[in-house]
Specification:
Helix content: 40-55%
Number of domains: 3
Distance between the termini: 40 Å
Structural class: alpha/beta
Largest sheet: 4 strands, parallel
Radius of gyration: 25 Å
Length: 375
């Protein structure tokens, strides 16, 4: 969602014949994005954070001070309704005069589809960097080929001799295929019953995984978007905004090389996360997870799902199970029972970090170190 920039009510005042622009009031949804905005505004101003560190952005109640920050905002940067659907109405009602930028909807943003199920199969890892659409296309092509083959086979069956020779085999294949489809359908229904509840209570508010700030590529793209929006609202400081964005992009490139070096010694290790929030990080560094304890962000997994994960850990010798600060630590202990896996705490939001420009790079650095230490 992006609205046309509106002129500031006090765009400039004259002091001694010199025009001095007011620094825009800026509100940002989550700490990692706040960090990127703070980096671009460095030396000019400080943005306000709406969702406090340590709180889940998927479910949150605004404090009076946070509502006031939205009401006073000239610009709002947020991930979008896929991450915080509750915030859309608040922005519309409280920040009606503000320019609003949903980063998930900005041009150049890399988006990945939600992964299905808690166990991520090997073929998903191969196509990880390209997103999930490639897997869906392959499936559709396979279905078309299969339908075409079936049509050709039906035409050939008009020949009596060929029909007689192939009838028993075809009936057997048909019965076997029907049985497999029935079994797959039953399994899908059972799987859907769990996932429907989890997704409804959790993060399935759109087509794409909203945890896109864990891609350094996206962070670099957004720095330019943030600088452009700030400059449009505050032309007098445009040079500072774009200079800060350029410096931050260089820092992110250095950070990417650092994280690659941190992960290299443990590359090939296997890990499971608490919930499926890390695929942008996994794709960025070609380091795929083997599964997630919970698909949804706000729902505890069912006993059947926990048992499924425990089986994967034992059967495949999973090395590491990662918890998160915002979620039930007791579930990790349950999952680890009877396994040799190590554990650690990985934080995609920077709950324990000091707010500001340094939070984002430290968040990414800490994630890589936690994963490497656990493996």
């Amino acid at each position: 969602m992006s609205r046309k920039l509106l002129p500031l009510s006090t765009a400039a005042i004259l002091l001694g014949g010199t025009a001095v622009a007011d620094v825009p009031s800026v509100a940002v949804d989550i700490a990692p994005v706040h960090s990127l905005v703070a980096r671009v505004m460095d030396g000019v101003g400080v943005p306000d954070l709406i969702v406090q560190s340590g709180a889940s952005p998927h479910e949150y109640s605004l404090r009076p001070s946070e509502a006031a920050a939205l009401q006073n905002a000239d610009l709002v940067f947020w991930m979008g309704e896929d991450l915080t659907p509750w915030l859309e109405d608040a922005i519309g009602n409280l920040a009606a005069k503000a320019s609003v930028t949903a980063l998930l909807e900005t041009e150049g943003t890399k988006l990945l589809d939600f992964r299905e199920g808690t166990l991520f199969e090997a073929h998903d890892h191969d196509d990880h960097a390209e997103g999930e659409d490639h897997d869906h296309d392959d499936h559709d092509d396979h279905a078309e080929d299969k339908e075409h083959d079936h049509a050709e086979h039906a035409d050939e069956d008009h020949a009596d001799e060929e029909h007689a020779e192939g009838k028993d085999h075809d009936e057997h294949d048909h019965d076997e295929h029907a049985h497999e489809e029935h079994a797959d359908h039953d399994e899908h229904e059972e799987h859907a019953e769990h996932d429907e509840h989890d997704d409804h209570e959790g993060h399935a508010h759109g087509d794409h995984d909203p945890h896109a700030w864990l891609s350094l590529q996206n962070a670099g793209t957004w720095l330019n978007v943030i600088a452009a929006q700030l400059s449009a609202a505050d032309p007098d400081n445009a040079g500072a905004y774009f200079a800060n964005a350029a410096a931050a992009k260089t820092e992110i490139e250095t950070l990417s090389a650092e994280v690659t070096a941190t992960l290299e010694p443990v590359r090939g290790g296997s890990f499971i996360v608490f919930h499926d929030a890390f695929q942008y990080f996994e794709a960025e560094f070609d380091f795929p997870a083997s599964g997630a304890i919970s698909i949804a962000d706000a729902a505890d997994p069912s006993p059947a799902r926990i048992a499924e994960i425990q089986g994967r850990i034992r059967e495949e010798g999973i090395d590491c199970v990662l918890a998160e600060p915002q979620f039930n630590a007791g579930l990790i202990a349950t999952v680890l029972e009877g396994t040799d896996a190590q554990t650690g705490v990985i934080d995609p939001l920077g709950a324990e970090l000091e707010l500001g420009a340094a939070l984002y790079p430290q968040l990414i650095r800490n994630m890589a170190t936690t994963l490497a230490d656990c493996l």
